[in-house]
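Quick one: structure for this chain?
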Amino acid sequence: MIRYSAFDPPEYINWSPDADVGEEYRRRLRSDPRRSEIIGVLEAKQLIAMYEGLLRNRLHDITLKRWVKQGITSKAWLGTGEEATTIGAVHALDRGTEEDGTRTDVVAPMIRNAGACHEFGMGVADMLRGYLGTADSPTRGRDLHIGDLKKGVLAPISPVGVMVPVSAGIALGFKARREARVALTWIGDGSTKAGPFHEGMNFAAAARLPLIVIIQNNQVALGTRLDQYNRGSFMEFIGAYGVEGWGFDGNNVLDAYAAVKIAADRARRIETRDRGPFLLVAETFRMGGHATHDEREARKTFPSGLFEYWGKRDPIGLFENYLIEGDLDLATGRRERRKAALRQSNTDLLRDAEAKVIAEVERAAEDALESARSRMPNPETAGGGVFSDAGSEEAPKAAGVPR
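Got it. Here's what it folds into:
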């Protein structure tokens, strides 16, 4: 993929595959027979869709970082380096929409899991409008925490940990209505210390709900290192709550896909509705600060060797190299042994996919900026949609207490 010197972490700018890390990536995919089987039946179009999802996620974040540098927005919360934990997970779920008559699973992303929004069908332009606060943004200019329940995306809630009990409530509804649907949410390593996480997990475990919770261990909470606020392994949480669960490589999109696919398939079976919840642990690393304003602080928090270690494990670069060096012809879906020609063919196809996603995100950015120029909220509409009996997006015209 193209690297952007003004926006990418320095470890990514001249990124090239490391042979040992590449073998580690492939070995991970072979280590679990069940996961290996799931990955082995993926079609070429599914693999390309995951690759496009990773790129879309990265380019969405790069757009926001560019806007911060240009003074268009003041800050942004990015998931650079963690994209596989999001993209692999959502591609393992059912992603229909209620608008087209199908029932979808529901995801509750943190702000750093923005990729869940576009992979569940939300437009990148709408996601960017959320940051710009335009009248045609999903929140109509109120908040940058966006979602779309019609597409199965629950908007994030600012207090950390709160999405777990909310997602448990959604999963309870699925179970009560005997719907073969699953709720999935992510929780940061720091947020596991919040009370709502424990309350939500305990309730979900006691009620045996079709819920998947991914602990996204990116090694830091704000500017506090993991070893400063946590003892032991997050894998021990699985036994503590009496639930099923396992770990996965949060920088390996295929390992993420397979790990979540197993959990979702088990949780979705109506005949065994006592299977759940599932607690998964993703090991990854945030290649930046808590937000764009404190990236320098992040570099001071950790030794440079840690950034170098995780920099070699760029989830997009690793997956791209895996697809290029493999024996699957991405154009035909057939297994081939002709190495040199196959490598070039796959490289060309991935370049075409990247060009398509770049064009998509560039159009989305222009559309969002046009909204900022011409469709900012009218202050008189601030009361619209706040009260259930308001009846419209417009605030009541009469003065005094809203009806």
